[in-house]
């Protein structure tokens, strides 16, 4: 983490948390005499554009009024955004927030990080109570079943774009309500 990135992270973390968000990432990209500061935030149930705009103003005020200039004399562009669909699932909260979405998971052999991985494609079901495993609902030949996956064994996981939405079986096995499911309007 660069000095600017670390300083901005420390400075804005309380502001982000006070608004009920998790600070997912701070990226500072310098280009000539300008910088782009990209702040990725997320929270359960997402964020509306108005809320992100308000948060952006608060973050800008904090950075502009820091006791010591963080970016030196450089002008900067601030981008406050939520993670995109293709963002990797790396923490239990990411799995919880993607509940019901399609996912591709690379599973490493338990205890062997260098061992080949198994690829599983399905829909994210329930995260267990202690947030150490998640159910992935697999559908083959019109039949759906649940595969528990230990989060510690996940080598990588990425949400997929889903235009069709879950079937009735997938909704039931994922523990989703009948209506207003993401991707199923």
Automatic annotation (TrEMBL):
PANTHER family: RIBOSOME MATURATION FACTOR RIMP. It is found in: Cytoplasm. Pfam families: RimP_N. Keywords: Cytoplasm, Ribosome biogenesis. Its main location: cytoplasm. Transmembrane segments: none annotated. Belongs to the RimP family. It comes from the Bacteria. It comes from Williamsia phyllosphaerae. The gene is rimP. Residues 11-86 form the Ribosome maturation factor RimP N-terminal domain. This is Ribosome maturation factor RimP. Required for maturation of 30S ribosomal subunits.
């Amino acid at each position: 983490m660069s000095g600017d990135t670390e300083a901005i992270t420390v400075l804005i973390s309380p502001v982000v948390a006070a608004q009920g968000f998790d600070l997912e990432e701070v990226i500072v990209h310098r280009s000539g005499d300008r910088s782009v500061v990209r702040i990725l935030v997320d929270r359960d149930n997402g964020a509306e554009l108005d809320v992100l705009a308000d948060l952006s103003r608060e973050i800008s005020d904090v950075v502009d009024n820091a006791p010591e200039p963080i970016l030196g004399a450089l002008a900067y562009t601030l981008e406050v955004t939520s993670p995109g669909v293709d963002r990797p699932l790396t923490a239990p909260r990411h799995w919880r927030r993607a509940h019901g979405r399609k996912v591709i998971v690379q599973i490493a052999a338990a205890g062997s990080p260098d061992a080949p991985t198994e690829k599983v494609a399905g829909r994210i079901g329930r995260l267990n109570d202690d947030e150490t495993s998640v159910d992935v609902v697999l559908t083959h030949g019109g039949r759906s079943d649940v595969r528990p996956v230990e989060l510690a064994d996940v080598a990588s996981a990425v949400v997929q774009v889903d235009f069709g939405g879950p079937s009735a079986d997938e909704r039931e096995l994922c523990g989703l309500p009948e209506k207003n499911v993401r991707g199923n309007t």
